[in-house]
Write a structure and sequence with these properties.
It is a single chain. The protein is an alpha+beta fold and 436 residues long. The chain has three domains: 30-180 and 230-329 and 343-353, 4-Layer Sandwich (Phosphatase 2c, domain 1); 181-221, no CATH class; 361-436, no CATH class. The protein has eleven helices and 17 strands. It has helices at 3-9, 16-26, 79-94, 102-133, 186-194, 258-261, 266-271, 278-293, 324-348, 362-366, 415-424, and strands spanning 33-41, 47-56, 65-75, 141-150, 153-159, 163-168, 172-175, 198-203, 209-216, 226-227, 240-245, 251-256, 299-307, 352-357, 372-373, 378-380, 387-388. The strands form four sheets. Strands 2, 3, 4, 5, 10, 11 and 14 form a seven-stranded antiparallel beta sheet that branches. InterPro entries: PP2C, PPM-type-like_dom_sf, PPM-type_phosphatase-like_dom. Residues 28-306 form the PPM-type phosphatase domain. Pfam families: PP2C. Belongs to the PP2C family.
Length: 436
C-alpha cells in the first residue's frame, strides 16, 4: 500500500478550537439528563461495577460529555474483574482516533470497544504469565457488560452472561446484549469446537452427565470472557456490540449480573421498578431477585435513566362518559384525535438500531481502516496502538500465495496481537497453559 492511499484513509486532524466550536454549536440541542442508581448483595464478593457519568471526549469541554456504566462479574477470583474495571475504559478510548467530531466518534466506538476488550485481555494474561514465573497461579476471569451513553445514543459491549436491557415508554423491553452461555448459544458451541475446544457436561460415577454445558479444558460455562488463562483461547474476549438511538422520550437501562437474570426475566425486572427513581429502582430489582430465588450468587444491578428535557409526550387521559347523542356527534372526531395521538406516541417510541455485530473473528470486527502516522511512516496496531512497520502485519495476512491472504490491506496488528488473533481462531497457542 502506498502512502497516498493511507493518507486518504486516515481521519482528518482538526484543531482543538475547531472541535470545541463545533461542540458548542451542537450544545444548542439539549442533552438528556442521565440519572443512575446502584444496588447489590454479595455472596462470593466477585462482582464489581463502574459508574463514570462525567467523561469528556474533549478534555475540559463539558459539551462533549458522555457517561460510562459497567458490570464485571468475576469467577475463580477477583483479579480479572478488578484489572478490567481499572483498565478497559482507557484502552477503549485510546483506540478512537483523535481530532474527530461527535458523529465520527460514535461511528468509531464499536470498533474501539472490540480493540479495548482484546487489549485488556492480552495485558491481563501477560500479567498472569509473569505471576506463573513467580509460581503464583492466576486463573480468574470475568464477564463484562460495558455501556456508553452519549446523548440519546447508547452503545453496549458485552462478553459473558451479564445483561443490559432497555425499557422505553409503552412498556417495550429490548435486550441489548447476547448471552454467551454454551448451554443456550448453539452458534458459540460450534465456534468453540471448530477452534479446538470440547463441549460437554461434568461426568460423575456411572457415566452420568450433570450440570450445564462446559468447555474443556477449563470447565467454563461461558464462551467469551476476559482472563481465564487455564481455559483454551477459543474462549475469546471479543464482545458483542450493539448501538441504538433512543426515542425522544428517552428510556431506562437495567444493567445487571447473572444473579439478577437467573432469577428474573427481562420483562419482570423492568416491570418491578417502573415509575421509581433510578436509585430506588435498582434496590427494587435486587429485592425482587432475592425474593424470587434467594441469594445464590453475587447480585449487582445498575439502573440508568436517560431523560430528555421538554420531549415527554403525555399519555392520553381516560375517556369521559358521554351520552348517546354526544357520542354520535363527536365520536368520530374523538376517535380521529385518538388515532393521531397514538401514531405520535408510536413514532416517538421507536428505538433506532444503528449498529450490531457479534462475530468472534477479529479481522471482521476491526474493519478496513488503517491508523497511520504520517511523520514516521509506521502503521499503528489496531488493538494495542503500538506503532510498527507495516510489512507482513496485516490482520488479513495468511499463508504465502494463499488466495485469501491480503497482507497489503489493513487493519494492521503488531506481532503479539497477531499471535493472539491466531490463538483465538485455534491456529496456535499464544502462551503455555497455566498449571497448578
Amino acid at each position: 500500500m502506498n502512502n497516498s492511499r493511507v493518507y486518504d484513509m486516515s481521519p482528518p486532524q482538526l484543531p482543538l478550537a475547531t472541535l470545541i466550536g463545533r461542540e458548542l454549536r451542537n450544545e444548542k440541542i439539549e442533552k438528556p439528563l442521565v440519572r443512575h442508581g446502584h444496588a447489590g448483595l454479595a455472596k462470593k464478593g466477585e462482582d464489581y461495577f463502574l459508574i463514570k457519568p462525567d467523561c469528556e471526549r474533549i478534555p475540559g469541554n463539558s459539551a462533549s460529555s458522555f457517561s460510562v456504566f459497567a458490570i464485571f462479574d468475576g469467577h475463580n477470583g477477583v483479579s480479572a474483574a478488578i484489572f478490567t474495571k481499572e483498565n478497559l475504559l482507557n484502552h477503549v478510548m485510546s483506540a478512537i482516533p483523535q481530532g474527530i467530531g461527535r458523529e465520527e466518534w460514535l461511528h468509531a466506538l464499536p470498533r474501539a470497544l472490540v480493540a479495548g476488550f482484546v487489549k485488556t485481555d492480552i495485558d491481563f494474561q501477560r500479567r498472569g504469565m509473569y505471576l506463573i514465573i513467580l509460581s503464583i497461579r492466576e486463573t480468574s476471569g470475568t464477564t463484562v457488560t460495558f455501556v456508553v451513553v452519549d446523548g440519546l445514543t447508547v452503545t453496549v459491549a458485552s462478553v459473558g452472561d451479564s445483561r443490559c436491557i432497555l425499557d422505553t415508554q409503552g412498556g417495550v423491553v429490548s435486550l441489548l446484549t447476547v448471552d454467551h452461555r454454551l448451554e443456550e448459544n448453539a452458534e458459540e458451541r460450534e465456534r468453540v469446537t471448530a477452534s479446538g475446544g470440547e463441549v460437554g457436561r461434568l461426568n460423575v460415577c456411572g457415566g452420568t452427565e450433570v450440570g450445564p454445558l462446559r468447555c474443556w479444558p477449563g470447565g467454563l460455562c461461558l464462551s467469551r470472557s476476559i482472563g481465564d488463562m487455564d481455559v483454551g483461547e477459543f474462549i475469546v474476549p471479543i464482545p458483542h456490540v450493539k448501538q441504538v438511538k433512543l426515542p425522544t422520550t428517552g428510556g431506562r437501562l437495567i444493567i445487571a449480573s447473572d444473579g439478577i437474570w437467573d432469577a428474573l426475566s427481562s420483562e419482570i425486572a423492568a416491570q418491578s421498578c417502573r415509575g421509581l427513581p433510578a436509585e430506588l429502582a435498582a434496590k427494587l430489582v435486587v429485592k425482587e431477585a432475592l425474593r424470587s430465588r434467594g441469594l445464590k450468587d453475587d447480585t449487582t444491578c445498575v439502573v440508568v435513566d436517560i431523560i430528555p428535557p421538554d420531549h415527554f409526550v403525555a399519555p392520553p387521559s381516560p375517556k369521559k362518559k358521554q351520552n348517546m347523542l354526544t357520542s354520535l356527534i363527536f365520536g368520530k372526531k374523538n376517535q380521529n384525535s385518538m388515532n393521531k395521538l397514538t401514531n405520535k406516541l408510536s413514532s416517538v417510541g421507536v428505538v433506532e438500531e444503528l449498529f450490531e455485530e457479534g462475530s468472534a473473528m477479529l479481522a471482521e470486527r476491526l474493519g478496513p481502516d488503517v491508523p497511520f502516522k504520517p511523520s514516521s511512516g509506521l502503521m499503528r496496531c489496531a488493538v494495542c496502538q503500538v506503532d510498527q512497520p507495516s510489512e507482513g502485519l496485516s490482520v488479513n495476512a495468511g499463508l504465502f500465495f494463499s488466495p485469501t491472504s491480503k497482507p497489503w490491506e489493513g487493519p494492521f496488528l503488531c506481532a503479539d496481537c497477531r499471535i493472539k488473533k491466531d490463538a483465538m481462531e485455534g491456529k496456535r497457542p499464544s502462551h503455555p497453559k497455566a498449571t497448578a
